[in-house]
């Protein structure tokens, strides 16, 4: 398994590119498809879902960027910025496609012909189609707002995760500093004990020497008295 600091970023960008490729194909198909109705609406719904997934990949790339070493970060910042620009482009393109579909649907009749101006029910039909187009636009706006809300929530969650990781790192560094201080104190205590032991041995040698000298003096004194 690749454990490099950029592996997750690269993986998320790969998934992002796949979603963008799928979105591009669907929008191209919708652009050249003159059929109106549920088929194109379903395609646009799938595009919205793919845009949400691509947005999620961008959010994950933004989170992973924080853990990339500073020496490599400028290159990946550029890749993230390009991904954001590409995502914004296709969001705008999807919105324009949705608006185009709504306008085409408003201008179309049930049989695909423009409504004659002398049709007594023309105003009612146009009003119905206008309401349907407005509802479709409102639905698209709501989807975009939901996607934006999900992106904000993901960004907030990512920020919370980064704060927790930073807090844990500070705790680990504090514990490491404490261990270093304790290790230094233990070394000092061990040195003090060694010095005390040396002094104890020195005092024993001095005491033994004094006792030996005293015994020698006693023997000399007794010898002189006996002689």
Structure characterization notes:
This protein has four helices and no strands. The protein has one domain: t-snare proteins (Methane Monooxygenase Hydroxylase, Chain G, domain 1, Up-down Bundle), CATH 1.20.58. About 7% of the residues have low confidence. The chain starts with 6 loop residues before the first helix and ends with a helix. The protein has 227 residues and is mainly alpha-helical.
- Specify the CATH homologous superfamily: t-snare proteins
Can you tell me the CATH architecture? Up-down Bundle
Beta-strand segment tally: 0
Within the CATH hierarchy, at the fold level, what is the topology? Methane Monooxygenase Hydroxylase, Chain G, domain 1
Features:
227 residues, 4 helices, rod-shaped, Methane Monooxygenase Hydroxylase, Chain G, domain 1, 85% helix, single chain, mainly alpha
SSE order and pairing:
Elements: H1 7-32, H2 38-65, H3 73-107, H4 122-226
Helix pairs in contact: 1-2, 1-3, 2-3, 2-4, 3-4
Give a quick precis of the structure.
This protein has 227 residues and is mostly helical.
């Amino acid at each position: 398994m690749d454990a490099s600091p950029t592996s997750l970023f690269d993986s998320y960008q790969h998934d992002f590119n796949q979603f963008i490729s799928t979105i591009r194909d669907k929008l191209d198909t919708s652009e050249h498809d003159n059929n109106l109705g549920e088929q194109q609406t379903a395609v646009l719904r799938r595009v919205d879902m793919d845009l949400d997934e691509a947005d999620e990949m961008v959010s994950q790339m933004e989170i992973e960027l924080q853990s990339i070493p500073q020496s490599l970060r400028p290159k990946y910042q550029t890749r993230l910025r390009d991904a954001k620009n590409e995502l914004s482009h296709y969001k705008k393109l999807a919105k324009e496609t949705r608006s185009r579909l709504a306008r085409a649907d408003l201008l179309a009749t049930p049989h695909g012909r423009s409504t004659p101006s002398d049709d007594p029910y023309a105003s009612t039909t146009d009003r119905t189609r206008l309401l349907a187009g407005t509802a479709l636009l409102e639905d698209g706006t709501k989807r975009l707002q939901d996607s934006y809300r999900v992106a904000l929530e993901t960004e907030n969650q990512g920020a919370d995760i980064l704060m927790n990781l930073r807090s844990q790192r500070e705790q680990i560094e504090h514990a490491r500093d404490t261990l270093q201080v304790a290790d230094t104190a233990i070394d000092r205590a061990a040195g003090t004990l060694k010095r005390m032991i040396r002094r104890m041995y020195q005092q024993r040698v001095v005491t033994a020497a004094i006792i030996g000298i005293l015994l020698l003096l006693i023997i000399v004194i007794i010898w002189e008295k006996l002689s």
